[in-house]
Amino acid sequence: TEKVTLLAIESSCDETSASVISDGQILSNIVATQVVHEKHGGVVPELASRAHQQNIILVVQEALQKAQIDKSELSAIGFTRGPGLLGSLLVGTSFSKAMALALDIPLIEVNHMQAHVLAHFIDEPKPAFPFLCLTVSGGHTQIVKVKSHLGMEVIGETTDDAVGEAFDKAAKMLGLGYPGGPMVDKLAKTGNPLAFPFPISDMPDLKFSFSGVKTALLYFIQKQTPEFIQENLADICASYQYTLIRTLLLKLKKASKLHGIKEISVAGGVSANSGLRLALAEMAKKERWNIYIPDFQYCTDNAGMIAIAAHYKFLAGEFTSQSVSPMPRFAI
Ligand code: KG4
Ligand code: ZN
């Protein structure tokens, strides 16, 4: 039988990415990270769409070249339809439509959050259904119950900021640059997590909230001298990060008990956090969970996860019409 070879495009935020997948095997995953946002301390949507426009063809060419696939061999094109920034999504969507039209092959729309979850099916070991996925990124904080490759349900979500945002905003307040998550992570490694207590939010059910802890940090900084902050940077980062991790694991444990599921996975950019990985491994031992974290390159935004999602949608015969437009808000 003929191979199913797909090209996938990701352009929802500040990463322009293309990937080639053949019969479920990732052959290439090229990511161009936009650096123009660093000096602005956050993603500037207008600049993001321009950078996507500049990068997209080069990234696609590199992905095809690395995979040693000619575009005539492609069976379909997968792309991120949302959620994300409209101007960014428009670049990937328009490009994918034009290329599918030119090659006379079908289009497959992919939900970016569903793709973060499906990143677990790129490499071994793969979680067994049903499993829970804590999806933690710069834009989202969700607990997803995954019943099948394409059957997912959000059972818990943030009511305000995403946890990645809580990392990034703290880093900004502490003058650590953007994106702040990796910097806070690095400093936290040498700090005392119990040095400064920050409030752990306990919203009802499986709801998250991160605006309280962020405000608590702001007040804490305002009360101290700049010298004190500089001298205690590692302890502040460790304490703040500890609070975020505790909040995440508190809800994850609650979700596991509530749904009777011990297959537990984490996805999204924040799953790169070393403190979260350690705390999760500890909790897994205590609670007898099987835990799954994708390879680092498939945790942060990338087209490999869009490719694996498109692969399952291709097998299910879920194609998208050429009149499709992006959906900045797009529920799983
Ligand atoms: O999934 P992702 O690449 O993009 C979105 O879809 O948002 O996640 C980016 C987020 C940023 O908030 C970044 O600060 C955070 O992931 N992040 C981290 C770490 N690496 C990336 N947060 C904490 N610790 C890290 N090591
Ligand atoms: Zn993402």
From TrEMBL:
Record PROSITE patterns: GLYCOPROTEASE (PS01016)
Binding positions (substrate): 135-139, 168, 181, 185, 273
Cofactor: Fe(2+)
The EC number(s) this enzyme carries: 2.3.1.234
Keywords attached to this entry: Acyltransferase, Cytoplasm, Iron, Metal-binding, Transferase, tRNA processing
Cofactor: how bound: Binds 1 Fe(2+) ion per subunit.
Ranges of residues in domain Gcp-like: 25-307
Binding sites annotated in the UniProt record for Fe cation: 112, 116, 301
Protein localization: Cytoplasm
Secretion signal, residue range per the UniProt entry: none
Catalyses which reaction(s): L-threonylcarbamoyladenylate + adenosine(37) in tRNA = N(6)-L-threonylcarbamoyladenosine(37) in tRNA + AMP + H(+)
A Pfam family of this chain: TsaD
UniProt xrefs under InterPro entries: ATPase_NBD (IPR043129), Gcp-like_dom (IPR000905), KAE1/TsaD (IPR017861), Peptidase_M22_CS (IPR017860), TsaD (IPR022450)
Keyword Acyltransferase: yes
Role summary: Required for the formation of a threonylcarbamoyl group on adenosine at position 37 (t(6)A37) in tRNAs that read codons beginning with adenine. Is involved in the transfer of the threonylcarbamoyl moiety of threonylcarbamoyl-AMP (TC-AMP) to the N6 group of A37, together with TsaE and TsaB. TsaD likely plays a direct catalytic role in this reaction.
Protein name, per record: tRNA N6-adenosine threonylcarbamoyltransferase
Origin species: Lacihabitans lacunae
